[in-house]
Structures are given as structure tokens and as C-alpha cells.
Design brief:
The chain is of the alpha+beta class and 81 residues long. The protein has 1 helix and 4 strands; from the N terminus they run ββαββ.
């Protein structure tokens, strides 16, 4: 059984004077996911890192993409798909 996002949500935390903002959106296509990424990059144009990840179930299989946007590896956790 697969789980999916039902509602668009966002949240933020502040840690060591850095603000981390998370947004989750329900999308139905790779194009729609890429458009959300463009929108978030415009909205948070002044951030140092805009990271994303998505999985889209298509008739040709699962499309998964992610980017840590240059975040140093010592601070990021492994992502397994």
C-alpha cells in the first residue's frame, strides 16, 4: 500500500540561528512537481539551500528525484529510495 500527501502543508524550525522551512504538496505529474520547485525557489530566493524530493507513480513506473542543493554531506542524512 502506498501513502500520499492529502493536503499541502508547511512547517519551520529554528536551530542554531538557522531557519529550516519544509513544504509538502500533492502533485500528480513530474511537470507539476517541477513547477512547485520553481515556485519555491522564487518564494525563497534568498535562502542558501533549496532542497527537494519527490516520487511520482506513472503508468511507466515510479519517477523519483531529489536534490540537496549543495548541502554539505556531513550535515545531511542518507536518502534511500
Amino acid at each position: 500500500m502506498f501513502k500520499t500527501i492529502q493536503d499541502d502543508v508547511s512547517g519551520e524550525i529554528v536551530q542554531k540561528k538557522s531557519k529550516f522551512i519544509a513544504n509538502a504538496f500533492y502533485v500528480e505529474s513530474v511537470e507539476e512537481a517541477e513547477e512547485k520547485i520553481v515556485q519555491m525557489n522564487k518564494k525563497y530566493f534568498d535562502s542558501k539551500h533549496n532542497c527537494y524530493a519527490f516520487s511520482i507513480y506513472t503508468e511507466n513506473g515510479i519517477v523519483r528525484r531529489f536534490s540537496d542543493n549543495g548541502e554539505p554531506s556531513r550535515n545531511s542524512r542518507a536518502v534511500r529510495c
